[in-house]
Amino acid sequence: DIWNEIVKAAQVPGSTSSPKLQPIITRIIMLQTGMRAPMGIKIRGPDLATIEKVGLQLERFLKEVPSIEPSSVIADRIVGKPYLEIEIDRQAIARYGIMLRKVQDVIEVAIGGKKITTTVEGRERYPVRLRYMRELRDNIESLRKILVPASGGAQIPLDQLSKIRYVRGPQVIKSEDTFLVGYVVFDKKPGYAEVDVVNDAQKYLDQKIESGEFQLPAGISYAFAGNYENQIRAQKKLAVVLPIALFIIFLILYLQFDSVSTTLLVFFGIIVAWAGGFIMIWLYAQHWFLDFFVFGISMRELFQVHPINLSVAIWVGFLALFGIASDNGVVVATYLDQSFATRKVSTKEEIKDATVAAAIRRIRPALMTSATTILALIPVLTSTGRGSDIMVPMAIPSFGGMFVALVTVMIVPVLYCAIEEYRLKQKLIE
């Protein structure tokens, strides 16, 4: 895998790899979750040291989850940055008669610098700061020799007035909802859905907690975050939208035909197309599907055949399929209604003749409708540019559904004929 080779080649001691993301999607994810990865865990707690400790434990456990790419698991190293701390000894400065403010001013000017004026260069203005030369302030030994003027005119080294040392501190302080927070980011392996990966990770961590291998300190909590949250929200909306869409389609068909039986016949095409969409998704997961070459071009690579997980794009594709799949049934059923309305049928043979006559007249328009839709989806299935990761999953169920829905051209007339024969039989019995 190219990404694994990049991670291996760019590995530097003391650094960690990062999940594979494009610049724009990285920015979007950062704005949504604050993390530079598609998935992660947010750890909340009272202090940064404990958060870092829990994060390192989670990093170790997440690397053991089968569906997570181990090289992408990164826990924040929160506490580890060296800070120069100067602790002023108040008793010492009192013995020398030096005010605390004077010591602070000397430290400020010597290390950080103090703005004394502003220079004007055309339309631009630059602050002029005064401070010690770099070689007099770039190490602790030099800082200890900084002289602080005393009240009697003596110059006292800063080392005698304070304790100067390096201490470990936070590299960055992040907070959410008034809690300190740390991140553990990770990415999934190819062939897994984000929601499934998060569920697997949650189950694995629950097992570790139950076995006692992983114990959360008091006041520490964690929660998964990332792109999968958008998918869950979208799936909840689609769980409402899809039934409503099917009901509206059924209602429109009923208003058109004014018959429940005919409406169900046309609606049967949607069910067949739905099955066809799932068949195509299943075929994309088979190693033998489209495993051949045409003019030296691999069909699997051309159509990007690989396992497809159920996602929002897939369900949107099904939603579009529901509207398209009813076309053939409407074309055939409309002409069947017109054929039976103009003919007076009284025997089974007449019903069959009327059905065959109507079906033959409508097969060509129905096939042309399906063919144009199927052919129009081929460029989408073979696209590789930006947005193809969304468009291809949307096109797969539509392509498979329309391909399988071709059988409705033959099935709808047969079922229509069977219903008319049943109605004729009931009339004869009466």
Identify the notable features of this structure and list them briefly.
430 residues, alpha+beta, Alpha-Beta Plaits, Multidrug efflux transporter AcrB TolC docking domain, DN and DC subdomains, Multidrug efflux transporter AcrB transmembrane fold, 3 domains, 5-stranded antiparallel sheet, elongated
Structure, described:
This protein has 430 residues and is of the alpha+beta class. The protein folds into three domains: 2-78 and 173-227, 2-Layer Sandwich (Alpha-Beta Plaits); 81-169, Multidrug efflux transporter AcrB TolC docking domain, DN and DC subdomains (2-Layer Sandwich); 259-429, Multidrug efflux transporter AcrB transmembrane fold. Helix content is 56%, strand content 16%. Strands 1, 2, 9, 10 and 11 form a five-stranded antiparallel beta sheet that branches. It has a two-stranded antiparallel ribbon with strand order 3-8. It starts with a helix and ends with a helix.
Describe how the helices and strands are arranged.
Elements (H helix, E strand, L loop, with lengths): L1 H8 L13 H11 L5 E7 L2 H15 L11 E2 L3 E10 L1 H6 L4 H13 L1 E8 L2 E7 L9 H5 L2 E3 L5 E3 L4 E9 L3 E3 L2 E8 L7 H18 L9 E6 H31 L2 H25 L8 E2 L2 E2 H4 L9 H31 L5 H34 L6 H17 L3 H22 L1
Antiparallel strand pairs: 1-10, 1-11, 2-10, 3-8, 4-5, 6-7, 9-10, 12-13
Helix pairs in contact: 8-9, 8-11, 9-11, 9-13, 9-14, 11-12, 11-13, 11-14, 12-13, 12-14
Number of helices: 14
| Percent in helix | 55-70%
Number of strand elements: 13
| Domain module count | 3
Radius of gyration: 36 Å
